[in-house]
């Protein structure tokens, strides 16, 4: 443990269970002395999220469906009752109908395209608007993205298009909020077996491919992601904004199958 986040207050959005990327980040932040609040999507998740929050000493656990402006407003209204200021926010939320996370991108429906962009892209902007209003200089906003934004990945489809837009929104918000000393970054995580990932077609194959072909010859863990998130959320990242930081065991630098990788 360390004191990197001592005296800092942060809101973690997107915790579903102990496999969630949000959980790896929350653990790293709590271990570094941060005080945390959590939001969860619906009643069904509350019974999973509340005990996890409590295990990190947090009792601020609030509902928020990011597809609903009134629900986002209610979250921040409630948060302000506990805290008068905010130092960081983690947005670990994405959604697409899983029927379109297989097959061809070109077949994406308008309805799912718009919903995926709404939940996976606009929600980070909507939340950052409200969070930044509670932040002082030194504030940090972080979202989660994937390499499917930059390169075509099988089955990632509309989520790849959404993540590309999310990364662009990070750059625009970094410029908008930079003069107030608020930083905005994206962490591009390698594949991790989570609830959201289980909706992606052939995810097992993607995991295996990354394990065999990334320079570190393994997959990342939520611990790896948590530690790198800590750098971006804490004062260690004070000069970093608008960045998409890869935490993927180096996979994004690779141009070809590794020489020692067996056929799978
Ligand atoms: P997860 O299923 O644990 O988390 C996804 C979260 O999104 C859940 O908590 C869910 O409740 C929330 N969510 C979805 N729709 C919502 C809505 N309308 N309102 C509020 N919350 C909503 O899965 P995860 O893999 O930890 O996903 C977290 C983030 O990490 C996502 O943005 C995902 O795209 C990204 N990511 C995941 C991987 C991976 O391989 N797992 C890799 C790179 C990036």
Describe this structure in words.
This protein is an alpha/beta fold. The chain has a single domain (9-251), classed as Rossmann fold (3-Layer(aba) Sandwich), CATH 3.40.50.720. The chain is built from seven helices and seven strands, in the order E-H-E-H-E-H-E-H-E-H-E-H-H-E. It has helices at 21-31, 43-55, 69-82, 110-133, 157-178, 203-213, 222-233, and strands at residues 9-13, 35-40, 60-63, 88-91, 140-145, 183-189, 244-247. Strands 3-2-1-4-5-6-7 form a seven-stranded parallel beta sheet, with helices on both faces. The longest helix has 24 residues, at 110-133. The N and C termini lie far apart (39 Å). Bound molecules: nicotinamide-adenine-dinucleotide (NAD). The site of nicotinamide-adenine-dinucleotide has 27 residues, from helix 1 and strand 5.
* Strand segment tally: 7
The CATH homologous superfamily = NAD(P)-binding Rossmann-like Domain
Rg, please?
18 Å
What's the story with the biggest beta sheet? 7 strands, parallel
Strand order of the largest sheet: 3-2-1-4-5-6-7
Strand content: 5-15%
- How helix-rich are the residues, as a percent range? 40-55%
Principal-axes geometry comes out as globular
Q: Tell me the number of helical segments per DSSP (H or I, 4 or more residues long).
A: 7
Number of domains: 1
Bound molecules: nicotinamide-adenine-dinucleotide
Name given to the CATH architecture: 3-Layer(aba) Sandwich
Helix-strand pattern: EHEHEHEHEHEHHE
Low-confidence stretches: none
**What is the straight-line distance between the termini?**
39 Å
CATH topology: Rossmann fold
Report the CATH C-level class. Answer: Alpha Beta
Kindly report the average pLDDT value: 97
Structural class: alpha/beta
């Amino acid at each position: 443990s360390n004191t990197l986040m001592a005296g800092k207050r942060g809101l973690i959005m997107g915790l579903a269970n102990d496999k969630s990327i949000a959980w790896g980040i929350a653990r790293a932040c709590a271990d570094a002395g941060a005080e945390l609040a959590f939001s969860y999507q619906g009643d069904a998740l509350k019974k999973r999220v509340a005990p996890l929050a409590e295990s990190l000493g947090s009792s601020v656990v609030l509902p928020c469906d990011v597809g609903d402006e009134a629900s986002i407003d209610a979250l921040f209204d409630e948060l302000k009752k506990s805290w008068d200021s905010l130092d960081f926010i983690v947005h670990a939320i994405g959604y697409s109908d899983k029927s379109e996370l297989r097959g061809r991108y070109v077949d994406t429906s308008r309805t799912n395209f718009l919903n995926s962009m709404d939940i996976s892209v606009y929600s980070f902007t909507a939340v950052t608007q409200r969070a930044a209003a509670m932040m002082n200089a030194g504030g940090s906003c972080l979202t989660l993205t994937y390499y499917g934004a930059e390169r075509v990945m099988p089955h990632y489809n509309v989520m790849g298009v959404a993540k590309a837009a999310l990364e662009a929104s990070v750059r625009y918000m970094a410029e908008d909020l930079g003069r107030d000393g608020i930083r905005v970054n994206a962490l591009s995580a390698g594949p991790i077996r989570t609830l959201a990932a289980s909706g992606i077609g052939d995810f097992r194959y993607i995991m295996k491919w990354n394990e065999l072909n990334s320079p570190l010859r393994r997959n990342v863990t939520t611990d790896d992601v948590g530690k790198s998130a800590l750098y971006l959320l804490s004062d260690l990242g004070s000069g970093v904004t608008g960045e998409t930081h890869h935490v993927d065991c180096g996979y994004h630098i690779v141009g070809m199958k590794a020489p020692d990788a067996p056929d799978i």
